[in-house]
Design goal:
The chain is an alpha+beta fold. It contains three helices and three strands. A three-stranded antiparallel beta sheet has the order 1-2-3.
Length: about 70
Amino acid sequence: QEWIMQRQYFNETNERLLTYEEVCAVTQLSQSTLRRYVKAGRFPAPIKPSPQGRAVRFRIQDVRDWLDRL
């Protein structure tokens, strides 16, 4: 799968991190459905790249693993 990103995010181990918008584009889920899935434990929880920040991101490998299990 090919993802086109305007801005790319990485964590401290240089792992690619995805925004909610990017995950929704890849999974074809709406943001509200994705949030419901995360809350219910049906989708991997996002991480906070910065402990002080409010932003959350998804690890690309978690998203790939979830897609592989479908």
